[in-house]
Amino acid sequence: MKIIRPSPELKRYTLPQLLKLRAENEGERVALREKDFGIWNEVTYAEYYANVRDFAHGLLELGYRPGEKFAVIAENIPEWVYAELAVQGLGGVSVGIYPSSVPAEVAYVMEYADVTMALVQDQEQADKLLEVKDELPRLRRIVYEDPRGMRGYDPDLFVSFEEVLELGRKHRHADPRAFEERLEAGRPDDIAHFSLTSGTTGKPKAAMLTHKNLIHMGVALQEIDPMEPGDDYLSFLPLAWIGEQMMTMGMGLTGGFAVNFPEEVATAMSDLVEIGPHLMFSPPRVWEGIQSRIWVDISESYAFNRWVYRQLMKVGYKAADYRMRGRPMPLGLRLAYAFAHAVLFRPLKDQLGFLRLRRAYTGGAALGPDVFRFFHALGVNLKQIYGQTEITGIAFVHRDGDVRYDTVGVPIPGTEVKISDEGEILARSDAVCAGYYKRDDATAELLEGGWLHSGDAGYLTDDGHLVVIDRLSDVMHTASGEMFSPQFLENKLKFSPYIKEAVVYGDQRPYLAAFINIDPQTVGKWAEDRGLAYTTYMDLSSKPEVAELIRREVEQVNADLPEGLRIRRFVLLFKLLDADDDELTRTGKVRRKFVAERYHDLVEALYGDRDEVLVKTEFKYQDGSVQRVEANVRVIDLTSSVAREEVGA
Q: Which domains can be identified in the chain, with CATH numbers?
């Protein structure tokens, strides 16, 4: 058996060609696993390729034409990657759609991307397409993976995944070379996949990713952090997101490690414990959630256990400061850490599924320094990455032993970077996409002068680390002309374990103010420990005691800021900002302009003289139902002693 190792040579293949190469050389090795009814089912590279090949033949039998766009709306399941690679092997383009998308969002993506066929996971996703079918004249066939509830659906439109495979086997028997010929004709620079941008300021655009983009990313990242053929990775973030495409497709096929799919999204963390992956990639909210759960569990433990935890964590934090900067620890600290690791950190990592974890990444937003230090104290090699959809996810990453709270690392191999005169981060590499589909105007701006224009403001340190400030378009000025970055301030607020989300205002205003979402888990536990009864999130967020808790957290942030950049007033929102209410993108980014318009009365109250305002709004659910609510929201003024007395100071 010949093991294919990551190398620049792989960039001369397409993704499905690379899969075929592995099937021919490493056919008996495990490529995929999926947990079903509590059992991990293994798929070898030979079976992986056979499923891709037969599905491709089935699509040909159904009338699929090379070059057409094929959408997938599903959770992370093997059928997603089979379909994606089959379409790409036929010379087509796959399009990822978030399974949490509402019908209107699905209709926009499919019409914009000229989708002709689609794979849906189940009846729920099928019904979304039926609801908007009249808006999709190009859509000819829909393949479904889960047959439950699909018996009465139109057979001229719907066909099961198993039926397509069976059609494919018959088609392959009649025309054995139909897929192989198209597969061999593929070129690395062919468009392979459409990955949708976040759409924070408008409708999402489809970044056209080539095979070379994804393979280069996998090769370059593993030049820094090599993976072994027997390693495991758990794929649980949406495959419609560039981050998961990068890991499951780009990294998985170039590195040859096993990609594992959880039974369902809700069981991902427990399934992670069973797999014990060697590599993990998650946005900050996942790492923050894990830390919060540990805090809650420790706080519910016996007093002696809490005391031991605090003492051993002190040792861990000291060791983390040495480890993150790659400095050797003094002998005494090494011995103390070995004891702490044996008594606390190793058992804790075992419970989390982190015992075999060699490298972990976080990206998509800033992660607080306390969270970084916490995981490094446990011995988890957590590193920040930075990139965007248009550069296939990663352009910068921390190196082992050179992890810093305030930077996103240095460029990965093959990446050039510079800062424009306006302070914009520019990059170029083989990972830069071919542009935006049907958006020549936006493509020209994106790739002006042969450089990818990130739209982000930042600077390089003397030793090459990148510091990201904010989106260029989001850098604001107060009425007095003082420049500030709302994202920077929002991230500092979210470093508090009690704050889940924040939206900062102040452009052309006399001072800065903010909307704040409390974290229901940590604040809920805080309230329970103090005997504060509550029923709903709205009830919890309206408690005067909770307002006082958050006031103290905001004041701690303010203490590290210049006078002109301190938060003067804030409100605790009565609901969590939600993608279903269009307040967040599907990747969890705040739609700042939309939120400001939706809660216009609240924004004005922050800059008025009222200390309370009645807000009327709607909750929108995925099934299309709407709930209208009214709530009195208190404005907390950090400069007023009267206001402090009112919230229980």
A: 9-273 (3.40.50.12780), 283-380 (no CATH), 394-469 (2.30.38.10), 475-646 (3.30.300.30)
